[in-house]
Amino acid sequence: MNEFAAKLYEIARKWQERWMKSRIFEVEPDESKPKFFITAAFPYPNSPLHLGHSRTYTITDVYARYLRMRGYNVLFPMGFHYTGTPILTMAESIAKGDRELIELMIEVYDVPPEDIEKLKEPLSLARYFHNDAKMAMIESGYSIDWRREFTTIDEEFKRFIVWQFTKLKEKGLIKKGTHPVGWCPFHNMPVGMHDTKGDVEPEIGEFTLILFELEKDLYLPAATLRPETVFGVTNIWVNPKAEYVVVKLDGKRYIVSKRAAFKLRFQRDDVVEEAAIKGEELLGKRARNPATGKAVPILPAEFVDPDTASGIVMSVPAHAPYDYVALEELKREHPEVLERLGVDPDELRPIPLIRVKGYGEIPAKEIVEKMGIKSQKERDLLDEATKKLYSDEYHYGVVREDIIEHVYSDMPEPYRSFAVAPVKAWIAGKSVVEAREAATKWLAALGYGDKMYEVLNRPVYCRCGTEIVVKVLKDQWFIDYGNSEWKKLAYELLNSMRIVPEDMREEFVKTIDWLHERAAARTRGLGTELPWAKGWIIESLSDSTIYMAFYTIIHKIRMYGIKPEQLTVEFWDYVLLGKGSAEEVAKKTGIKREIVEELRRDFDYWYPLDSRHSGRDLVPNHLTFFIFNHAAIFPRDKWPRQIVVNGFVLLEGKKMSKSLRNIVPLRRALRVYGADTVRATLLAAAEILQDANFSEDLAKSVMSQLRKFENYARLSRSMDSEETIADKWLLSMLQQRIEATTKALDELRTRAATINILYEMENDVAKYLELRGGKPGPALKEYIESWTKMMTPIAPHIAEEVWHEILGKDTFVSIETWPSVDPEKRDPEVELIVSYVDKIVEDVKSILRVYKGEAKRLVIAVAKPESWHIARIVSSYVAKRGQLRDAIRAVINAGVPKKDAAQITRKLYEFLRSADEALLSLIDGVQEFDEKAAIVQLKDYIVRKTGIEQIEVYYVDEAENKMPQQKIRQVIPLRPAILIE
Q1: Which of 496, 554, 570, 724 has minimal CB crowding within 10 Å?
Q2: Please, what sign has the CA dihedral across residues 424, 425, 426, 428?
Q3: CA–CA distance, 793 with 586 (Å, rounded to integer)
Q4: DSSP string spanning 594-621?
Q5: What is the pLDDT of residues 899-917, one digit of tens each?
Q6: Could you tell me where the DSSP H helices lie in 480-623?
Q7: What is the value of pTM for the model shown?
């Protein structure tokens, strides 16, 4: 830690203590103010908070602090999520002496070795990291109302969750049924995102198994997500090195991989393993395609993953890049294999099935050649090609009419007509979407179709280390997110919300669309018991959907000593939904009527939730469940108003991970850099959805800017009372900065706001001091006061320090009023003067870099003030990207002679095309501009910047004999002629 970082750390501790003591972030309903209720996803206390967590909470706190200063009554609470298995599994592993985990705790997470013993018991571990996370949040300066803190295993919260699930069940949204779920074979329980290593949600997909008959009553069940392509199968792939087994189920015998047989036991009751068989033993045999009647050969392919689905893959080289490349490679490099297996290369020719715009007859061939893929080993490219082609065919593809030519072509009539009829009616000529569903049903009806569930994003591991499989869970309780009426409500709520950034809306739409039944409970873990099913614990992503409502009253439940058993369904119905009466609730629960009414008023004041903040990894689960559950339980006027989604955090350009040992605990970062540096670095690194790269260089840069801010604040205490053009310029720039920063924070463009505050405002002050020759004037104090207020959401501790200790204020800047723009102090002319003179200084320096000899005199020729209107006309055409000819016509109409208009307009047009929007805006805002007067006003500044003592400035008609005529002729408004002698 360097000296200034140590100072920042101490300053932070000082103001955190004062905030806590003064309780300035503890809020109650206040009808005189607009309210703003903001929350961020509460953390799991199974390890310390790290920089990744900090980004979400810092963005939330910046927004909370900003709106508080804008006059809102802001509630920002925090709780802790104990529910589920993460805490349990972590404690069990430590208790078992898991060396790798214990080393991680000590070496990466900064847990003192003597504290490891405390982590062996689940609740002890949870409380340990709960306290650590809370301290990290306090030390980060988050403006949280800590009175409302709770955990999800508090008895009061459990009563709230019982109410929530009772409501869902009453509405028919929780049902008993049979559905596929992610499953841990070791713990024998359903698992979700928070039960897995890396918090990965198991994505469950349904593979169609197409039964290729190898011999009577023995089938190769080829697993596919594209059953409509079965008509183009040229061969079957098996992995020659894999172990396969013959299994019996539903009266049929299948050959599947050893792993597939294991997985099928979780999905079917009647799986019997009969015999083992090696993959290589199947090579060269033929299996009958049930859609075409053709016997296709079995060929070797090491790209076949025996751990995925059945371990048997059908080959469709016209539409599958992997298949096309594998067959071409086999024919090109290993023709002897085909010869040995008795396979004619001609029978492996691709069979086109689908027409799709932008592709030729054989789409797989086309995309493979376009991407230059030559080998099966180029998996990344093949994955990319497969994803693109499959997507294009799914969305835009149509099945060719001529596929019926491949359907049992050798079958005699009239039997063939019966075989062809359903294909002709339901599949040929249909969209891929329609054909896929029809092909699945057709094959199943014929007895040649089956299904198998698989984890599409496998491998996903339970926190215990066991790979997750899919289990078809029977007679269990599920939340029915597939309910069509519920989905309509969810879409309605989504459409009513602001999503930040708006780009994420489509991701929510897709999630709502594909979301289906989800297991509601587990047999293991911490949490609330399902009220009607003893022994089942409501899972962690189900009890964390509407808990924001609990924040509104928990502190008063405790304050009034209300017991958990008094928190009945009727209590919550009244307080949260307004159902029943306070008198009835008081009578049934024993809670005083006036307290019940107060709790209802508190909830009614704070709800709906105004802003919900989370990382983007929670969009496919928690945030979408949040939408569903609010839509189901609350009336429309209590639906949440906004979701804010942020990206991840990189460390020195790399993803933080346990394997790389580069996870930085938040409290360590705070000690090394200081809270304000950590906050501002995360904010300055990227806009909200981009991944933010926390780097040492950026942290040092941020720290340097904070130091400059403090130094400039000290400088403002000793000022010259004389007002100059520099003071007018600084106050004008201040209005710009206030306007731009306010707009950025309103739009949650936190990087733009941070860059403005940390860098652009520091540049303003540095420029101001240059303009004044290093002596601060009267404008600096006003600028520093506003700058301090604007610094507060980003770096609140140093802002408080400057506000109190340097500026001598006796209030907390954290609850001061955000600066507003004063139009009277905005002076575009002064800004243009400084911008114009800076351009002259830049041009002079460019000349001096190549000038030989000592520069003694600077002569400048400028356009006359009366030509300024021409610059404004031309600038307006450049700003709106108008045509040069129209600009010339406008200049002529303004009274400029035709013979001069074209020449001067053309020069100005070309010059201003390279100008930025800021300059064009200034030109538009300045009615009259005297370039000679501008230079004279800032003559001393030019001398200091260029080192040339003698400066002469003339209008063009005064410049005769002062500089060459050729230079004078080049003068146009804003582009003077410069001569150095």
Answers
A1: 496
A2: positive
A3: 43
A4: HHHHHHHHHHHHHPSP-EEEEEGGGIII
A5: 778 888 888 989 898 888 8
A6: 484-496, 505-514, 548-551, 554-559, 569-577, 582-589, 593-606
A7: 0.85
